[in-house]
């Protein structure tokens, strides 16, 4: 299935371009065993001309037929190629970036490929309850692997120490799995889902 790259996309987001759009589908909590709870999810990846994707995932507990029972959670964040900041980048705060993207051509982006033939990426995701995750990982074609470098928790947040996430594009569908180390337990299956693109 061909991937359409938006004409207004900054060059360094081209490796992430297959994520752009709206996704919906169903998943299971835990390892997906017969007694695991079901959920439905709506995910969006958008861009605004800056060198990152904006991410939002809204999730509801559901019955086994996919009917929503009640809200479960919302998470939001930013996905980008991992690279050293340059003079033309914006920030901190409202300090504007240069009008022309820092990485201006496909060749400049290609120079960022890692030894495995993919691109290093960073992802920050914020959750209700005072928790924010910082992931580092790799995108290689339509596959993403992420591991937390840091989990920041507020003073009243539940205990949570690490996570991994994987994403893949399979037959035009977005599949993901999330493993979590929390509540004194080692890394274990937390949730997984199968999402289709919303036209």
Brief digest:
This protein has 199 residues and is mainly beta.
N-to-C SSE string, H for helix and E for strand: EEEEHEEEEEE
Beta-strand fraction estimate? over 45%
Could you tell me how far the N terminus lies from the C terminus, measured between alpha carbons in angstroms? Answer: 15 Å
Number of helices: 1
Q: Roughly what percent helix?
A: under 10%
Computed Rg: 18 Å
**Biggest sheet, spatial arrangement of strands:** 1-2-3-4-5-6-7-8-9-10
Regarding quaternary structure, what we see is single chain
Motif (GXWXGXG): 21-27
Enzyme class: isomerase
Organism: Paenarthrobacter aromaticivorans
Keywords: Heme, Iron, Isomerase, Metal-binding
Q: What does this entry look like structurally?
A:
This protein has 199 residues and is an all-beta fold. 3% of the residues lie in helices and 52% in strands. It has one helix and ten strands; from the N terminus they run ββββαββββββ. It has one helix at residues 106-110, and strands spanning 21-29, 38-46, 53-62, 68-81, 119-127, 131-140, 143-153, 160-170, 173-182, 188-197. It has a ten-stranded antiparallel barrel with strand order 1-2-3-4-5-6-7-8-9-10. A hairpin with a 6-residue loop joins strand 7 (143-153) and strand 8. It is globular and about 50 Å long. The relative contact order is 0.18. Heme b binds at residues 158, 190. It catalyses: peroxynitrite = nitrate. Residues 12-197 form the THAP4-like heme-binding domain. A motif (GXWXGXG) lies at residues 21-27. Its cofactor is heme b.
């Amino acid at each position: 299935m061909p991937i359409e790259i938006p004409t207004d996309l900054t060059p360094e987001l081209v490796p992430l371009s297959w994520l752009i759009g709206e996704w919906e589908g169903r998943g299971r909590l835990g390892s997906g065993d017969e007694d695991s709870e079901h959920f439905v999810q709506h995910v969006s990846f958008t861009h605004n001309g800056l060198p990152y994707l904006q991410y939002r995932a809204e999730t509801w507990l559901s019955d086994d037929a996919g009917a929503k029972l009640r809200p479960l959670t919302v998470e939001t964040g930013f996905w980008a190629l991992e690279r050293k900041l340059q003079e033309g980048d914006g920030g901190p705060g409202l300090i504007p970036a240069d009008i022309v993207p820092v990485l201006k051509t496909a060749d400049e982006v290609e120079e960022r490929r890692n030894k495995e033939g993919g691109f290093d990426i960073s992802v920050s995701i914020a959750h209700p309850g005072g928790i924010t995750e910082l992931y580092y990982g790799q995108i290689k074609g339509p596959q993403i692997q992420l591991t937390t470098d840091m989990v920041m928790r507020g003073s009243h947040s539940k205990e949570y120490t690490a996570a991994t996430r994987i994403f893949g594009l399979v037959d035009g569908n977005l599949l993901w799995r999330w493993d979590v180390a929390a509540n004194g337990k080692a890394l274990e299956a937390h949730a997984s889902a199968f999402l289709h693109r919303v036209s």
